[in-house]
Amino acid sequence: MRWLLILAVCAGCKRSDAPPPPGPEASQISTIPAMPASEVKRGQDACKAYVDKVCACAETTPALKQPCLLACVLPDALQVSLDVAANPESARLDALQANDSVRKIVKRCIEETARLPSAGCP
Fold first, then answer.
1. At what angle do helices 74-86 and 92-115 cross, to 10 degrees?
2. Integer Cα distance of 16 and 3 in angstroms
3. Phi and psi (nearest 5°) for 115?
4. Which pLDDT tens digit goes with each residue over 33-47?
5. pTM to 2 decimal places
């Protein structure tokens, strides 16, 4: 009787050697949707406007010279992130992080533009 019980338990514990086939969602996960062109354009415009404004104000407000120098690299950083995200050879995680980086850079441009009046920039 004990042997029958052991045999029944072992038969119920049989492992499957083949992994389950991927579902239809697996192929959709590997592709990264491109960032909408309108979002890219708004971001580029926001960063360009910030650079133009802070550097124009830096000519009359010495405290804004350093922010002007730092702001000048934001459009380039934005473009590098966009290029990484759009590159088909980029790993999925890298593309997702690049899209996140684009949004963070744009957020910074918008927030810094909003702070300019308190720094003495009209």
1. 160
2. 23
3. -85, -15
4. 788 999 999 999 999
5. 0.72
